[in-house]
Write a structure and sequence with these properties.
76% helix; mainly alpha; single chain; three-stranded mixed β-sheet
């Protein structure tokens, strides 16, 4: 196939979830509603935590950062899709596509590390309650956020710079509603071996280490809860982890769903729907999970409202 240098690539075509013109108004209304609910829910979580001094603790500090990350994660992909539906266009510029790839990787990595930091916070609170204030100091919490941001930024920039070395074919159709790293690499006509190795290597390390940390933390938490003598103590300890465990299950469940669907099916539409579950649904549901399952959050939200 005819190839062209990456500097000559005008842009890509995002095929989206459906090409049926009759479904476009329905998709626009659905995703606009989901996006507005995502923005409102995460903003309320951040405002409630910031306005209530009782919530100025490590657990809610990480939660406010998670809400900010979810808000940015959804903003990276959904508004462009809404603009394309409204304009009846599928195009995205080459710089715009690379920018979208970079920020999707950045915020996905941040969410991954934040969930691990929150699991560690719950581990210290339940397994080492007397030393909690000393271990989870403001300095450590800030350091965990900065470290997560630095590692996620380095990962996103690395993959984005590696795309710049690729040459692309004349067929530049992406069967998704946003520029996903794997789909962009598949469009390249030049050798992508290094890019693919890098994707698998970095994803295994930066995805596997936080997940192992979460599994270890909850293994220790479960062991401590089972050793508690009273049923009330067990319920109270578990209730502090219930919301976080639900968010972890949602995030990693949808992520593994994307991986399995891409491995087992060759249908681009099914893969696009799986990616939708990974990028849009967790930011939408996370505020509801924390506000409905957490008494302190419900009280703070009522005060704010």
């Amino acid at each position: 196939m005819e190839t062209q240098n990456q500097t000559d690539v005008a842009g890509f075509l995002l095929l989206g979830l459906s090409e049926d013109p009759e479904q476009q108004p329905l998709l626009f209304g659905l995703f606009l509603t989901m996006y507005l609910v995502t923005v409102l829910g995460n903003l309320l979580i951040m405002l409630a935590i910031g306005s209530d001094s009782q919530l100025h603790t490590p657990m809610y500090f990480f939660l406010s950062n998670l809400s900010f990350t979810d808000l940015c994660f959804s903003t990276t992909t959904v508004p462009k899709m809404l603009v394309n539906i409204e304009r009846q266009s599928k195009s995205i510029s080459y710089p715009g596509c690379l920018t979208q790839v970079c920020f999707v990787l950045l915020f996905a990595g941040l969410e991954n590390f934040l969930l691990a930091a929150m699991a560690y916070d719950r581990y210290v609170a339940i397994c080492h309650p007397l030393r909690y204030a000393v271990i989870m100091s403001p300095c450590l919490c800030g350091l965990l956020i900065v470290l997560s941001l630095v590692i996620s930024s380095a990962d996103a920039l690395l993959h984005t710079l590696m795309i710049l070395r690729l040459s692309f074919c004349t067929e530049l159709e992406i069967p998704h509603f946003f520029c996903e790293l794997d789909q962009v690499i598949k469009l390249a006509c030049s050798d992508t071996l290094i890019n693919n190795i890098l994707v698998y290597l970095v994803t295994s390390i930066l995805g596997g280490v936080p997940l192992l940390g979460i599994i270890f933390s909850y293994t220790q938490i479960a062991s401590s809860i089972l050793r508690m003598p009273s049923a009330g103590g067990k319920y109270k300890a578990f209730s502090t982890c219930g919301s976080h465990l639900s968010v972890v299950s949602l995030f990693y469940g949808t992520a593994f769903g994307v991986y399995i669907s891409s491995a087992l099916t060759h249908s681009s539409k099914e893969t696009a729907v799986a990616s939708l579950m990974y990028t849009v649904v967790p930011p939408l549901l996370n505020p509801f999970i924390y506000s409905l399952r957490n008494r302190d959050m419900k009280q703070a939200l009522w005060k704010l409202i």
